[in-house]
Amino acid sequence: MSATIRTVLGDIRPQELGVCNAHDHLFLRSPMLPGQQLDSLEAAAADLRTFAQYGGGAVAQWTPYGMGRNATGLLRLSQATGVHIIAATGLHQAHHYQPAVLAGIEDRLANLFINELTRDSQLRAGLIKVAGSFHHLDAHARRTMSAAASAHWATNAPIAVHLEGGTAGMEVIGLLCGELDVPPGRIILGHLNRFPDPGMHRDLAEAGVFLAFDGPSRANHSTDWLMFDCLTALVEAGHSDQVLLGGDTTVAAAQGAPGMGYLLSALRPRIERELGPDAVARIFIDNPARAFATEWP
């Protein structure tokens, strides 16, 4: 069985993915982010078209269950723009949900994730998104990661992890890989630029996981200048085949954020100048194709 990448429009071969924004949001809604909701189909389409104009071919959409993913909107966006969209199942931190929502699904999380990964229902997901807490894993994180591991073993789907402030990466690896036996090559750790510690990043890379760094965002004040130091350290340490880059803009371009196009118009040229064209090809094309490709059952 050959590996494919599951997009909202169907499965594609890894070589069809193209230049990939490995972590972003087209639709998003949370009580913790008032005024920052992404709910405009037109704004998302404009952002995607700009991304495509710079050569972008795919976006991994990390908005999980219950946060306004807009499955129908994702389908329409991919059809209208030609950009591949990988949708997420999974669950974010507890405070992003009303207690009644969590109470209604906590006893069936694994089945919920599996259903969205394997059936042609309202959403065709291609990854599982879960989240840690700041410098630790709380009970909610452990519960959702355990469900994600069960869903992984049923589907082989990759698990993408929101690291709060870029922290608790080793704790996540200890739980998912150590206790729950998920292969490290099936795990993507996100937001590592928010904790710009090259030594810690090397430790994570040596465990075998993928490392996702995020571009600029008014919402989370990502630090581009330190991110390049971290990327350089990883490449020099021989881990260029584990690095991913995403926009994670979280605020619509229409509201003042740089938008997805910035990832390719500004960040990609600088990476090429500092790290060379081979590193650019790995970070934007080769690594995402491996990270999101799965031998689906």
Describe the structure.
The protein is α/β, with parallel strands linked by helices. It has one domain: Metal-dependent hydrolases (TIM Barrel, Alpha-Beta Barrel), CATH 3.20.20.140. 40% of the residues lie in helices and 16% in strands. It has 10 helices and 10 strands. The strands form 2 sheets. It has an 8-stranded parallel β-sheet. Helix 2 links the parallel strand 4 and strand 5. It starts with a strand and ends in a 5-residue tail after the last helix. This is Phosphotriesterase-related protein. It comes from Kibdelosporangium banguiense. Keywords: Hydrolase, Metal-binding. It holds the Pfam family PTE. InterPro entries: Metal_Hydrolase, Phosphotriesterase.
Write the layout of secondary structure elements.
Blueprint: E1 5-7, E2 10-12, E3 19-24, H1 41-53, E4 56-61, H2 71-81, E5 84-90, H3 99-103, H4 109-118, E6 125-131, H5 139-155, E7 159-162, H6 169-179, E8 187-190, H7 198-206, E9 210-214, H8 224-236, E10 243-246, H9 261-275, H10 277-292
Parallel strand pairs: 3-4, 4-5, 5-6, 6-7, 7-8, 8-9, 9-10
Antiparallel strand pairs: 1-2
Helix pairs in contact: 1-2, 1-9, 4-5, 7-8, 9-10
Seen as an oligomer or otherwise, the chain set is single chain
Tell me the name of the CATH class. Alpha Beta
| Secondary-structure element series | EEEHEHEHHEHEHEHEHEHH
How many whole angstroms does the radius of gyration measure?
17 Å
Here the CATH topology equals TIM Barrel
Characterize the biggest β-sheet. 8 strands, parallel
CATH architecture: Alpha-Beta Barrel
The number of domains is 1
CATH superfamily: Metal-dependent hydrolases
Cα distance spanning the termini: 9 Å
The best one-word shape is: globular
Beta-strand proportion: 15-25%
Mean residue pLDDT = 93
Low-confidence region ranges: none
- As a percent range, the share of helical residues equals 40-55%
Strand order of the largest sheet: 3-4-5-6-7-8-9-10
Number of strands: 10
**Count of DSSP helices?**
10
